[in-house]
Design a protein that fits this description.
With 189 residues, this protein is mainly α. It has helices at 15-36, 44-58, 69-83, 94-139, 145-160. It has one domain (15-174). The chain contains five helices and no strands. It is elongated. It starts with 14 loop residues before the first helix and ends in a 29-residue tail after the last helix.
Length: 189
Amino acid sequence: MDTTDKKKSKNYIENDTVYKQILEWKTEYDKVFEDTGEHIGVSEDLTKSIYTIANQLSNRYNFNGYSFRDDMIQDAMYVILKYMRNYDITKTNPHAYITTCCWNAFTNRINIEKKDMIKKYKHYVNFVETNADTLASESGSAIDYEIVDQMYSRINDYETKPLASVDDEFSEIDIYVDKKGNPNLKGFF
């Protein structure tokens, strides 16, 4: 094998190609927005590239075990497509911008799901506490309080965990963007 041959790239997305797609779209977007004040969508090729990056990141070890991976990807797509107009075209690494948006969308979805799970735990524990005698007499078996204790422990851990401060200006889906609408990179690198 000739060592002068270029090695085939193992990247699933070519950064230069994505940058060119964004540059073309951003140029057209700025022109249309300036002329008509309307927003235009991104191209199909750019959308596929963004989806590929989001999907590949969701396969990373710290995200691939969740049952709501599809929701994480959808949240990431929503955020990226919503804030793509804020991409600074002087930066030539769109993969980093897209990955950062995906990462933040994924962690935000995980936090939302944890919050919902705690609500379910609280409801279940409250139900068991108020109906323990009835449940035991109807089913004829004792309640497994080990599971209830685990739920109490998880509720307590969640409620005593310090929460990050978030500006009230943004909704839950927008937690990871700053006031200008750019992704918050603090703590990412």
